[in-house]
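Project standup — Tuesday

K.O.: blocked on the structure for the chain from last sprint. Re-posting the sequence here as requested.
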Amino acid sequence: MTRINAQQVGAILAGMAPTSSVYLVGAGGCGMSGLGHLLLDWGYAVHGSDQVENAFTRSLLERGALISIGHSVEHFRKANASLVIYTPAIRSDNPELLAAQQTQVPIVRRSSALAAIMKRQRGVCVTGMHGKTTTSALLAYALDRMGVEPSYAIGATVPQLPQHARFSVAGRDRTLFIAETDESDGSLPEFEPEHAIILNVDEEHLEYFESLERVCQEFQVFASRVTGKLIFCADDPQLVRLFAGKTYAVSYGFNPSANYRVEMDRGEALHDSAAAGRTRFKIFKRGELMGAFHTRLLGAMNVSNAAAVAALLLELGFEPADIAEGFGDFTGAGRRLEEIYHDSDVRVFEDYGHHPEEIEVTLDALKELGSSRLLVAFQPHKYTRTRHLLRQFAKSFHAADKVWISEVYPAGEEEIPGVSGEVLSGAIAETGQQAQFVPNLDQLRRAVREEMRPGDLALFLGAGDITGAARLLADELETDRMEHKKKLMAELEATLSDECLIRMDEPMSKRTTLRVGGPADIYVEPDSEESLASALRFCAQHTLPFRIIGRGSNLLVRDGGFRGVAICLRHPSFAEVRVEGNQLICRAGARLKKVAIEAKQHDLSGLEFFEGIPGCVGGGLRMNAGAMGGCAFNALVSVRFMDYAGDIHERKAEELQAEYRSCPLFKDHVALSAVFQGEPAKREAIQNRMNACSKKRWDSQPAAPSAGCMFKNPEGIAAGKLVDELGLKGMRIGGAMVSDIHGNFVVNDGGARAEDVLELIEYVRAKARQERGIDLHTEVEIMGDDVE
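H.V.: unblocked you, prediction finished:
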């Protein structure tokens, strides 16, 4: 076939009528389906074919494309196409390509078509041997979050983007077009972007380039076509050799000589669970701090990828705080260190990595999670790559505790004698690793499952069809988990009184004042102290995670819910308040407002401030709740509490350590009841003070659903005043909003998700750190899991 370059493709597309048909040979590939979406956005009719139906073909069909299953001349003729685009994975004797040649319909490669489409806007190419999918997806996500509405073409599904390719007409020819740009087949120089990010170069695709030097030459030619900023990694020696000192080139990385130097905050403790699962880092430009950032992606390599995005956006004039908010909650692209299953015992990840360098950084990142063992299943990709890099592959699994190798995925190549998964498995074993060859993917999945123990993390690696084995294992584990959960619930129910409420998969949005949160595996409301003790002992016996909750104020549950038992003390038996002399004996589930009212009705003062605090006595003790100048421990005489073994204890107030918004005892004990001391006073005076507390609360606090004050007050300034001074009142992410009445409240303004609230929390914290050097910590407790 005569090769048509990007410039020629652009001319062909420009000359086509708006309703012309484009035919995609291999439409079910990620890159090809992305092109389909771009063409549909332009208004072209899209036809095509592939051997099997998949999620990519279905997404095109849903938008009106006509995708046939199987390659045939008849499918092609029906399309009456003006242009044919094919992927290099398609053989040259494909009947549809042959028919196009015979009818003289222009035939172009996918990369040439993408380069032509990108030229209509301000192109930004993201390229390199490793990490380009994650980096391009992160860049597109960040720009979208910042309101830029970029065009993009990403080489994988991106859960946080509506689809993996889009041609945006928001800014027409001034719109940024983010393209993950493949270097594997010599098409890189066809792209002529305004800006580019080059992440790394390596001994890869040697079946095409033959040598690393030839790879470097390819990147040099590509760089010469960049008209704006070339962002390159200063930690890659080859890139430094090629581009350091070039006037158009800007470097980033951990290297002290980088223009944008990255510094990870490894030693900084993450003091509250809002920041859990995030890695913080700073970026300096010529010694000047440009900003503090965080990422939810694992490992130093992903910090580097995030820094590449930040460097480009800083060069383009975006504000550091906006960049931090833009990409801080990006969760990654499909099959890029993607967690596909987890429970309290095991976690399963899959990754597209298929090069020794990718394998090493992926395993190192997962080791940071601290699992007891790392089990790795790998499907080699291409015979040529396996042959060229056999020794590097053999050394790349050093962080794994056990390795399984399946047969090579050929990706269209002919088998090479002496190159196989078994040979690679033997080479790994020679390094001292536990490695086993498993011929097919079904056996591979079963072998990993049989080996898995509590505390293990399993990783499925490879660019072929190993994803099917990984997903099937995740489905099997989920089915087993559901059956186990039903069994546990039945056993727990049998140990409790008939008066206890017990439910499975109870939405925690119904049980919290913020009205967000996924389900708890098992939800229990004990009807007595005996039932509470039974529930605690059951959890200990079965090593089940559990959390004690009250009325759901001061609590944020993540969208993934809670993998364990939520024990709520809201049964009427835990809500009693009685008065003896000048003291109130209050059960842990009693509302604090009820305590204040009961004290007033018995002419007892000193507890009026409880009127303005949502929640119950148990939560008030755990958090040493306070308002209007008073706090729970100021009036406390004694408490009864239960340890997690179900035994009951009692202590006087002076024996307890009370801190600002905390009582350490109740981090691992359950409050049962408290005795509060009142002081005789006239009821009218008490009512007046309660009215003042109520008025102050409703005048200064929002009525919309919230969890109460979100942040603890830092030294020297009230958190609400700080948020106000930062100009963040009214700041909104999704359905979550910083209250425009009180800056220390995040409210659910309608339809908020926990993710919205968490992102908003992190945005406020980033602003406080960057502009005032203050690290805010959440007062609200955060529990549960992110959505998988």
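K.O.: great, moving the ticket to review. The domain at 702-783 is CATH 3.90.78.10 (Uridine Diphospho-n-acetylenolpyruvylglucosamine Reductase; domain 1). Residues 329 and 759 are 7 Å apart (CA to CA).
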